[in-house]
Amino acid sequence: MKKTPIIPIVVFVVLVGLAYGVLANSHIDIFPGMVCEQIITDGALSCAPETISLLDHNRAANEFGYQEFGVFGWIVLAIVNLGIPGLIAWFLNKKLSK
């Protein structure tokens, strides 16, 4: 009977939390998205594709515009926040099961 790999699971959860904490509190602009800004003179909303950070995405929209992830921004977030810690936990599980 195979034992549950508790150490790799704990390492995965901790690394996901740390990765999210770092990304949510820093200006690491690696996520493709849209930046929409309101033009003060006429009130029009101007949007342009740019790379944005998770910190900017998590901020509430203000009266001057907002920033949001595009589809590829969510894919990059999943790869960085889940994929990399998942690979580390998988390699750790392989090493511990030998």
Quick structural gist:
The chain is α+β, with helices and mostly antiparallel strands and 98 residues long. The chain has helices at residues 6-24, 54-58, 71-96, and strands at 31-38, 45-52, 65-69.
Give me some keywords for this one:
98 residues, alpha+beta, three-stranded antiparallel beta sheet
Describe the overall structure:
The model has no long low-confidence stretch (mean pLDDT 84). 11% of the residues are buried. β1 and β2 form a beta hairpin. This protein has one domain. It is built from three helices and three strands. With 98 residues, it is of the alpha+beta class. The two termini are 15 Å apart. The protein is elongated and about 65 Å long. Strands 2-1-3 form a three-stranded antiparallel sheet.
